[in-house]
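ok so i was messing around last nite and threw this chain in just to see what happens. nothing serious, just curious
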Amino acid sequence: MDGHRQERPGAVPADFRRWAQNYLRARNERATSTRINAMYDAVSLVLGLTAAAHSSEAYERAWEAYCDGLGAISRERGLERHPHRYRGAANDN
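result:
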């Protein structure tokens, strides 16, 4: 061991988890593990590799690009937004 804590394969890196928690809380959204895991999957998809090696600015740009793309697809389908986009917040009570 080199003294650094190893992330288990497939785990959301701690720096991404911190960024996502701060991002969601700044927007008065709940920072649940499910939501953070979904954000990590989306950001990793946009970045084309694991998001662990990137900065907070890169995370934010990738998340915004993902949301913009999802919004564009939804509008093409005649929807105001993706049908599941806000479901979590409504059911959090």
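not much to say yet. The radius of gyration is 15 Å.
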